[in-house]
Recover the amino acids of this structure.
């Protein structure tokens, strides 16, 4: 029995890319272990490279859990939907340097996992993210100011993944406040599913803290220069309904329903042929951020699009010709 439990723990940990110390499953029998396993659909997360996994996997310790290691939660579904959760309730999910690193590593893990297709990013306890932790910022000086650094070939910012160009879809479920750096993190999403009481804003304006995590780049691209300037210069709060009108929010849902709606959208996107999804997504971002002209953007769209034809498109056309798609079922 002990050997069987060890195998089950190992199999579960490796297949979720999460390190589970043995004390998290202190069952002594199969009857005790299985219910505990089924209950742990969302887990404590400390991103680990696979080279570290075997060393960390069953490190027994009697010391209490460090809450900072729980500041980012990571979960996956067999359908290919990843959930990344900010979990610093005491700070309204504000980001300090350790949390920024864990959040960055979580998005790297999502990108590198070929079984995962769509990510839902949200904050626990009714708040998306209140920005950078100003208690931490108050202790910093010019001698340790953030630099435009690059780690393992991918940019990392003060808020973590804010400088990444994430290569797969991300849907943000926004509740409560998404302000300052939290607004910037929400702009990482391809879509923002927003609860009716949510507030966006450049609240860092009042403290003399600039936007250095993509806010001045992504916000004008999403809502237009005029609306972006209104938010950036005044620092005022923007309600969910106003965010919907300006294109910052894609959908507004009742309070408490943001994550549920975002998961439904993610599951829908995950069911589509993924190469085509990502080629079209890449083409949109190229047209907005990279292309020097319409001709260049159209050439990129055509070149990328034609790479999908033999791998997905012809098969899809054949399925349609054979009757698939009737009644909205594909």
């Amino acid at each position: 029995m002990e050997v069987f439990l060890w195998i089950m723990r190992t199999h579960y940990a490796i297949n979720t890319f999460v390190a589970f110390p043995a004390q998290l499953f202190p069952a002594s029998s199969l009857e005790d272990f299985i219910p505990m396993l089924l209950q742990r659909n969302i887990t404590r997360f400390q991103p680990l490279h696979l080279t570290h996994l075997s060393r960390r996997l069953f490190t027994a310790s009697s010391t209490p859990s460090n809450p900072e290691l729980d500041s980012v939660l990571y979960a996956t579904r067999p359908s290919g939907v990843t959930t990344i959760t900010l979990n610093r309730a005491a700070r309204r999910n504000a980001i300090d340097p350790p949390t920024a690193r864990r959040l960055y590593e979580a998005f790297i893990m999502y990108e590198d996992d070929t079984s995962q297709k769509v990510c839902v990013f949200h904050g626990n306890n009714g708040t998306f993210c209140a920005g950078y932790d100003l208690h931490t910022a108050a202790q910093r000086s010019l001698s340790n100011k953030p630099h435009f650094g690059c780690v393992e070939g991918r940019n990392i910012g003060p808020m973590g993944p804010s400088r990444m160009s994430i290569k797969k879809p991300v849907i943000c479920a926004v509740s409560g406040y998404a302000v300052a750096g939290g607004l910037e993190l929400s702009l990482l999403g391809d879509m923002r599913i927003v609860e009716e009481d949510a507030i966006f804003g450049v609240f860092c304006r009042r403290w003399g803290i600039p936007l250095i995590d993509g806010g001045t780049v992504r916000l004008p691209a999403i809502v237009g220069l005029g609306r972006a300037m209104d938010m950036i210069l005044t620092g005022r709060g923007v309600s969910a309904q106003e965010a919907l009108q300006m294109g910052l929010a894609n959908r507004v849902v009742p309070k408490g329903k943001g994550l549920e709606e975002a998961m439904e959208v993610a599951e829908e996107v995950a069911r589509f042929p993924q190469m085509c999804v990502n080629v079209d997504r890449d083409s949109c971002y190229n047209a907005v951020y990279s292309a020097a002209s319409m001709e260049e953007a159209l050439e990129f769209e055509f070149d990328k699009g034609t790479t999908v034809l033999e791998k997905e498109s012809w098969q899809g056309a054949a399925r349609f010709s054979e009757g698939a798609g009737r009644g909205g079922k594909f």
Observations:
- The chain has 13 helices and eleven strands.
- The two ends are 45 Å apart (CA to CA).
- The first helix runs from residue 2 to 16.
- Residues 1-65 have pLDDT under 50 and may be disordered.
